[in-house]
Write a structure and sequence with these properties.
The chain is of the alpha/beta class. The chain folds into two domains: about 230 residues, Rossmann fold (3-Layer(aba) Sandwich); about 120 residues, no CATH class. Strands 3, 6, 7, 8, 9, 10, 13, 14 and 15 form a nine-stranded mixed beta sheet that branches. Helix 2 crosses helix 3, helix 11 packs across helix 14 and helix 13 runs antiparallel to helix 14. InterPro entries: MeTrfase_RsmB-F_NOP2_cat (IPR049560), MeTrfase_RsmB-F_NOP2_dom (IPR001678), RCMT (IPR023267), SAM-dependent_MTases_sf (IPR029063). It catalyses: a cytidine in mRNA + S-adenosyl-L-methionine = a 5-methylcytidine in mRNA + S-adenosyl-L-homocysteine + H(+); a cytidine in rRNA + S-adenosyl-L-methionine = a 5-methylcytidine in rRNA + S-adenosyl-L-homocysteine + H(+). This is 5-cytosine rRNA methyltransferase NSUN4. It is found in: Mitochondrion. GO terms for molecular function: RNA binding; RNA methyltransferase activity; S-adenosylmethionine-dependent methyltransferase activity.
C-alpha cells in the first residue's frame, strides 16, 4: 500500500498511461453509505434516480459490474528480477467482467441539465468505456416527477433516491450567505417535491424491492415526514427496514460463523463452543436439505417466518441472528409440542440477548447514527460525515 501511494502514474486496462491523481474520484462518505445500504447484487435492475454528481452511481456500478475477486487473486506468477525489481503477470480474463455479465442494468438519471452534463462527464471518465457502450448502463435526463418518463423500463429491484433537499450539510460546512435564504416555506416545498419523487420511485419498484431514501437535511419535514406520508398512502404495502440493526446482525452472524470460540460468560461460567454453534446451525441444516425446513431443528434458532426468509435469500448473506420478540410466537407453539424445543429456543434467546448486546456495546460501528421514527440520521456533533438521513423502504 505504501508503494502504491507514492506512484505518480498508472497503466490503464487499455495500456494507456495516465497520472494517478486524474483517475481518483474523491467521494463524500455520505454518498458511499447511501449506496452501500441499498445492498445491490449482481444481475439486478437498479435506478439511481437523482444521481448527480455521480459518486453514488460509481459505487453502484462497481457493485453490479465490478470484480468478484481481489486483484491479488488474479496474479499468475511473480518473478524476482533483482534486488529492486519484480515482474508480476496477471490473468486478464476477468478484467472485463461486465462483458459477460449482461443481465444487470444500472439506470442513472439526473433531471437538471447542467448537473446531467456533469454526471455524464464523471461517469465517462471513471467507468470503463466498454461498460458505458455495453447497454448495461443508461445515463438519462428524465424528470423524476413524471412517472411516464420511465415507461420504457421494466420495474426495478433497487432504487437509490438521494433527493434534492435544503442541503443543511453544505450550509453548515460552507458557512456562507446561503443560510440567509433558508426558510420554513422552502423546506415545506422541498418536502412536497421529495414526496412526489418517492411516490414515483415506489411505483417503479418491484414487489419486495428496496428503496434507500436519503437527504443531507436536518428537518423532520424533509425526512421522517416524507416517509410518514408514503406510509399513510400505501399503508401495509410499506415495510420500513431497520438497516442499522440489519447491518449489526449481518456482521455479528459472520463473526459467529468465522469464530465459534467467542468468550462470553454467564455467572462467571464460560460458554462452550457447542452452545455458540447452535446459533448458526440452522444455516447448515437448510443448506443440507436444499432449502427445505428441517422440523427437528426448527427450534434451534428463530421462528418459521425467519426461516422462510432465509430459504428465499442468498444463504451467504442470510440474517440468522435471533430477536427476542420474534421468538415469542414460535416459543408458544414449541411448548405445546415438545419441551426440549422450548429449551433450545430459550438457549438461542439467551445467546442473542447477551452475546449480541455485548457485541453492539463493544463496537463503535455505526454509533454515529441516531434513530428517528422511521430512519436514522447522523449529525455533525457525533458523525465524521456530517448530516445524513437514511430510510430503507421495502415494497410488500
Amino acid at each position: 500500500m505504501s508503494e502504491l501511494a507514492n506512484i505518480t502514474d498508472i497503466i490503464k486496462y487499455d495500456d494507456s498511461i495516465e497520472q494517478i491523481d486524474k483517475l481518483i474520484y474523491y467521494l463524500n462518505p455520505c454518498s458511499v453509505l447511501s449506496a452501500y445500504f441499498l445492498n445491490v447484487q449482481k444481475n439486478e435492475k437498479v435506478l439511481d434516480m437523482c444521481a448527480s454528481p455521480g459518486g453514488k452511481s460509481i459505487v453502484l456500478a462497481n457493485k453490479i459490474f465490478g470484480f468478484d475477486t481481489s486483484p491479488l487473486n488474479r496474479i499468475k506468477n511473480i518473478n524476482i528480477k533483482n534486488n529492486s525489481n519484480i515482474e508480476i503477470k496477471l490473468s486478464l480474463d476477468v478484467l472485463n467482467y461486465y462483458k459477460i455479465n449482461k443481465a444487470g442494468l444500472l439506470v442513472v438519471n439526473e433531471f437538471n441539465k447542467n448537473r446531467y452534463l456533469r454526471l455524464k462527464d464523471v461517469l465517462h471518465k471513471y467507468l470503463p468505456t466498454d461498460l458505458i457502450k455495453s447497454g448495461n448502463i443508461h445515463i438519462i435526463n428524465y424528470n423524476g416527477l413524471k412517472l411516464n418518463s420511465f415507461v420504457r423500463y421494466e420495474k426495478f429491484h433497487k432504487i437509490l433516491l438521494d433527493v434534492p433537499c435544503s442541503s443543511d450539510e453544505h450550509l453548515i460546512k460552507k458557512k456562507s450567505s446561503d443560510i440567509n435564504r433558508w426558510s420554513v416555506n422552502i423546506i415545506k416545498n422541498n418536502s412536497n417535491v421529495q414526496f412526489e419523487l418517492l411516490l414515483n420511485a415506489f411505483h417503479l419498484l418491484l414487489t419486495k424491492g428496496i428503496i434507500i431514501y436519503s437527504t443531507c437535511a436536518l428537518s423532520y419535514h424533509e425526512n421522517d415526514n416524507v416517509i410518514e406520508r408514503l406510509i399513510k398512502k400505501f399503508n401495509k404495502h410499506v415495510n420500513i427496514i431497520d438497516f442499522v440493526q440489519e447491518e449489526y446482525e449481518k456482521i455479528y452472524t459472520h463473526a459467529m460463523q468465522q469464530n465459534y470460540n467467542i468468550n462470553m460468560t454467564k455467572n462467571n461460567e464460560q460458554f462452550i463452543q457447542n452452545d455458540i454453534i447452535n446459533v448458526t446451525e440452522c444455516k447448515y441444516h437448510i443448506s443440507q436439505n436444499n432449502g427445505e425446513l428441517n422440523k427437528n431443528n426448527l427450534s434451534k434458532c428463530v421462528n418459521k417466518e425467519k426461516y422462510e426468509y432465509v430459504t428465499n435469500t442468498n444463504l451467504s448473506n442470510a440474517n440468522l441472528s435471533v430477536d427476542k420478540n420474534t421468538n415469542n410466537s414460535y416459543k408458544q407453539k414449541s411448548t405445546q409440542n415438545n419441551s426440549s424445543h422450548t429449551r433450545s429456543t430459550d438457549k438461542c434467546d439467551f445467546l442473542h440477548s447477551n452475546h449480541f448486546k455485548k457485541f453492539k456495546e463493544k463496537t463503535n460501528f455505526l454509533k454515529f447514527f441516531e434513530k428517528t421514527k422511521y430512519g436514522y440520521i447522523s449529525l455533525p456533533d457525533k458523525s465524521p460525515f456530517g448530516v445524513l438521513y437514511i430510510c430503507k423502504i421495502q415494497k410488500v
